[in-house]
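Colleagues,

For the teaching module next term, I've prepared a clean inverse folding example: a structure given as tokens, and then the sequence designed for it. I'd like students to try predicting residues themselves before seeing the answer, so please don't circulate the second half yet.
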């Protein structure tokens, strides 16, 4: 297959390059293309006309690109980068796919379970409506731009992804530092829900989305077993053989991280992969302990 991957330098993109290594890969880069498989892409202007010819004959597009949502406080500049990298970037990508004489069969585009906003204790499936938070609004716009590909006859799968568990990068790699020093603990009340997905499983879900011609629309790319922050903290401590007795109070999160901390650390994300379960997708790591043991080995 001939596959275009955007966001190929990220954690997930690097894994997919290995998984699809036997295929003809094109890797969209926002910098200068320095390798034969790289192709220059700009979220404002898309691909140059000369580069569009290289996209002819694509079988699949895997669209991962997006500004990292974690880090320090969300400034207005940071929020604009988060929004534009997803909504504007997806718009220009789909516009370029419209220009091709032979369009790809499938577009797999990332989104997030942030689509549902703060879920509190309610379990969310793909049929639930969007929330009204900043990230929920971003996800709505992001998904709307991706869905336009259907108008061009491109099967479109939108993966609402949970926190990916890997020690190679992402949220877990950041979390592990205080835990390794024995200063990990629950965040806020610890009662907020956390949906998650093992790195191997999200890669397998993407493969499944590319290959399964009957799958289209929104799909929750999460483990079937979300946990509370308290349970996550306890399990990570057990896996790392470290104590977890130093909590991070809610007021400290808000003081240090503001809206970003409130959204990412204190609000609930409780989503399950109903569509994947209904069609019989089997998770390699369905429970948190085995996923963390694999991620930290």
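(Answer key — instructors only)
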């Amino acid at each position: 297959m001939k596959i275009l991957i955007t966001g190929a330098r990220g954690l997930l993109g690097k894994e997919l390059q290995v998984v699809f290594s036997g295929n003809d890969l094109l890797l969209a880069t926002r910098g200068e293309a320095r390798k034969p498989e790289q192709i220059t892409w700009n979220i404002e202007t898309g691909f140059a006309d000369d580069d569009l010819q290289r996209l002819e004959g694509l079988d699949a597009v895997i669209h991962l690109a997006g500004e990292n949502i974690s880090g320090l406080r969300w400034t207005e500049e940071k929020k604009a980068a988060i929004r534009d990298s997803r909504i504007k970037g997806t718009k220009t990508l789909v516009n370029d796919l419209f220009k091709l004489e032979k369009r790809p069969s499938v577009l797999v585009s990332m989104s997030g379970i942030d689509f549902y906003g703060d879920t509190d204790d309610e379990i969310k499936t793909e049929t639930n409506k969007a929330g009204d938070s900043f990230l929920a609004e971003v996800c709505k716009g992001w998904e709307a731009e991706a869905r336009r590909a259907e108008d061009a006859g491109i099967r479109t799968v939108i993966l609402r992804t949970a926190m990916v568990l890997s020690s190679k990068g992402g949220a877990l790699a950041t979390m592990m530092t205080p835990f390794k020093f024995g200063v990990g603990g629950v965040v806020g009340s610890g009662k907020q829900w956390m949906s998650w997905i093992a790195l191997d499983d999200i890669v397998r879900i993407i493969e499944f989305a590319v290959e399964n011609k009957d799958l289209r629309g929104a799909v929750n790319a999460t483990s079937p077993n979300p946990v509370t922050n308290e349970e996550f903290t306890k399990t990570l401590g057990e896996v790392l053989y470290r104590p977890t007795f130093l909590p991070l109070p809610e007021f400290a999160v808000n003081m240090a991280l503001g809206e970003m901390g409130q959204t990412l650390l204190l609000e609930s994300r409780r989503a399950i992969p109903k569509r994947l379960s209904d069609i019989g997708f089997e998770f390699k790591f369905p429970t948190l302990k085995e996923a963390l043991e694999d991620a930290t080995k």
